[in-house]
Amino acid sequence: MKIYNFAFGPYPQRVNIYLAEKSPPNVERVIFDAPDKQAGVPPASIKALTPTGAMPILRDEDGAIIGQSLAILEYLESKVSGPDMLGATPAAKARTREFVQVFDEALTFFGLWARHGSDLGRDTVRISLDVAAICAARYFDQLRLIEKMMSQSDFITGDRVTIADCVAMATLQYAADFYDVPVPDDCQRLARWCAEFRQRPSAASPRYPEDKRAIALGLMAQTGVGF
Ligand SMILES: N[C@@H](CCC(=O)N[C@@H](CS)C(=O)NCC(=O)O)C(=O)O
Q1: Whose CA is nearest to atom 1 of ligand 1?
Q2: Given the CA of residue 68, which atom of ligand 1 is nearest to it?
Q3: Residues in domain GST N-terminal (predicted)?
Q4: Which atom, in ligand 1's list, is nearest to the CA of 35?
Q5: Residues 161-215: pLDDT tens digits?
Q6: Whose alpha carbon is nearest atom 11 of ligand 1?
Q7: 222 pLDDT exceeds 90?
Q8: 90-223 is classed in which CATH architecture?
Q9: CA dihedral 100, 105, 108, 110 (to 10 degrees)
Q10: Which CATH class is domain 2-79?
Q11: Count of helices and strands (H, E) across the chain
């Protein structure tokens, strides 16, 4: 089985963190530094594997092609060996998926905020401070919802690492490291979990392109957003 992915980015990083936690045998990783159309990175033949051409993409030996990071995580959970990272019972699986869904929605709002608010998008998309403000508020609402859903346990769903931790860390790490957007002060459980999970080798900060990061940092000030 092969996974094509980027070294950084909120969707790719879900899978990078997962693979570091799970350490499955027989999964080959092909990691691209950053998208570069001019240089043909990722190659057109890889992008053509799925309708979106976005990373990550999984190609299995039997020819199965999976796009979409969450589908890839579920596919890996059902196919590779390693610690159970979904949940042992239907209720535990459902709890993991509840968190994954809320974090996924959070990332959609964050992505819209960043894309349409950051100076980084100035030459490629329509900039709208209204869209940015609305989506920033919705992003923080999602984090506050997660705060309510969490218990005092060590990990997002309970006492073991699940795919919810991978999705959560990929989101919060990207927001903090690339855009300088922290977890709000009133999300104390989430902030504590984030600080602790960041110590794990799986959550080591990826290498970001520094030229882009320099423009992205300070998203809150750029878009006039506070908590
Ligand atoms: N919903 C998709 C999003 C994937 C995505 O947007 N990937 C970005 C990197 S963060 C990408 O490949 N962008 C470059 C491109 O689309 O060409 C998923 O969950 O996998």
Answers
A1: 68
A2: 20
A3: 1-84
A4: 14
A5: 999 999 999 999 999 999 999 999 999 999 999 999 999 999 999 999 999 999 9
A6: 54
A7: yes
A8: Up-down Bundle (1.20)
A9: -90
A10: alpha beta
A11: 9, 4
